Amino acid sequence: MLRNPTAMIRRMHGDTVEDAPRWAVVSAYAASLVVLPSCLWRIALGFGAPIGPLRGDMGDARGDLPGWVPMWGYTIFLSVLSEALAFLAVGLVARWGEVVPRWIPGLAGRRVPVLAAAVPAGTGAAVLTIVTITSLPGFNEFTEPDGTAVALEGWRLALFVASYGPLVLWGPLLAAATAAYCLRRTRRPSPTALSTP
């Protein structure tokens, strides 16, 4: 049982900066969470759950994946990587996004340059927004490794939309958090106000 969920979140993610607007904090955390449903769907599919568009044995789904890599391992890797990238949005409102944490040797305590965070975040937001919007027309259509077109239907389609639909928000949420980060960091008068995390 969680006694203090706020304290647990702060311990895991670090403190948010005091001057971050509430909407920016919500955007950053939401950007890190909208990826989670698709990760869970992908992992379930990798373990052989009959929720995807593929017919027959999961061996048919391997495509170009080498035979020595288990499908479940591949889907877990992709999901962890996706969630780790999504989690970087929290750095736009957390202390570790402004001052390098003390556990990083050689850089500890140095300020993170605004552009070092803003350019990758802004580029990511733009790419994510374009990719998700352009993929909407064929959202339920897939091509199997043998070239056969398959469309999801019924409850599988509903589950897929519930799992992957939130990804449409990833780019705009990241863009909002990035804009707030740039405005806050460029308006702040003195960098000495921050202490090392």
UniProtKB/TrEMBL annotation:
The keyword Transmembrane applies. The chain crosses the membrane at residues 21-51, 71-94, 114-137, 157-183. Keywords: Membrane, Transmembrane, Transmembrane helix. It comes from the Bacteria. This is DUF3995 domain-containing protein. It comes from Actinomadura luteofluorescens. The lineage of its organism: Bacteria, Bacillati, Actinomycetota, Actinomycetes, Streptosporangiales.
